[in-house]
Design brief:
There is one protein chain. This protein is α/β, with parallel strands linked by helices. It has two domains: 1-36 and 197-228, no CATH class; 37-193, Alpha/beta knot (3-Layer(aba) Sandwich). Helices cover 43% and strands 14% of the residues. The chain has helices spanning 10-18, 23-34, 50-62, 81-84, 100-109, 148-153, 171-187, 197-211, 215-225; strands spanning 40-45, 67-71, 92-96, 113-117, 124-125, 135-139, 156-159. It has a seven-stranded parallel β-sheet, with helices on both faces. It starts with 9 loop residues before the first helix and ends with a helix.
């Protein structure tokens, strides 16, 4: 957003921008916001097929995951909007170039438990994962999975049980299956997993800025007219 209003003016700016959006659209935003969480986030390491990246973003949006962290050390992050259906604009996507350790350290400082998805022996069944703590779930690329370093930096490994001859799902399918299980349990938990009022306010502003055509000019004009 080019024009971020002072905190004291955000409520008024929100009300102003809301006047350019239908009530149906506002109700949908409220409904989506009520299901958004930062207790779970997703991190992707070197996903190289754009349609997989896009499908993951779409799943994150559908399951109410707000934050996606993209580590593109070797492969450039690309979103194919015909697959994601524009999901990226509703998410908070943080990119790290040559930054696996930077990403892990940042998430740990925010209180996340780093969980690596893997096929290696000794991994915990995803259904048995302790969900009381904030979780950052790391997924590796289509060919090799997560790197050795990612495994070493993780606090825990998890796996999705499989009983067929094929011992791996497509990355986008894996993300969707794991998020379905984790968010289902989260929504039934007693702890508060919703976004804080401040986070909701900031995110609503971002969504409205993206939804209203010419929002930058509108907000700039509003702030100029209502400056002290």
């Amino acid at each position: 957003m080019d024009n971020i209003p002072p905190t004291s003016q955000i409520p008024a700016v929100l009300e102003y921008l809301s006047s350019f959006v239908s009530q149906h659209r506002l109700d949908l935003m409220d409904q989506v916001m009520a299901a958004r969480t930062r207790n779970i986030c997703v991190a992707l390491e070197d996903i190289y097929q754009p349609h997989n990246v896009s499908a993951v973003l779409r799943s994150c949006d559908c399951f109410g995951i707000q934050d996606v962290h993209v580590i593109d050390d070797s492969n450039t992050f690309k979103d194919r909007k015909t697959v994601s259906l524009g999901a990226a604009k509703w998410l908070t996507v943080q990119r790290y170039r040559n930054g696996l350790e930077t990403c892990v350290n940042a998430l740990k400082q925010q209180g996340y438990r780093i969980v690596a998805t893997t096929l290696r022996p000794g991994a915990t069944n995803v259904l048995e994962l302790d969900g009381d703590q904030k979780i950052a779930v790391f997924f590796g690329n289509e060919e090799k999975g997560l790197s050795k370093t990612a495994h070493e930096l993780a606090d825990e490994w998890i796996t999705m049980p499989m009983v067929g001859f094929t011992q791996s799902f497509n990355i986008s399918v894996t993300v969707a299956l794991i998020l379905q299980r984790l968010t289902d349990r989260l929504q039934r938990a007693s702890n508060d997993w919703h976004l804080s009022p401040e986070e909701q306010q900031s995110l609503t502003l971002k969504w409205l800025m993206q939804d209203v055509r010419g929002s930058d000019k509108l907000v700039r004009r509003y702030l100029a007219e209502h400056s002290d």
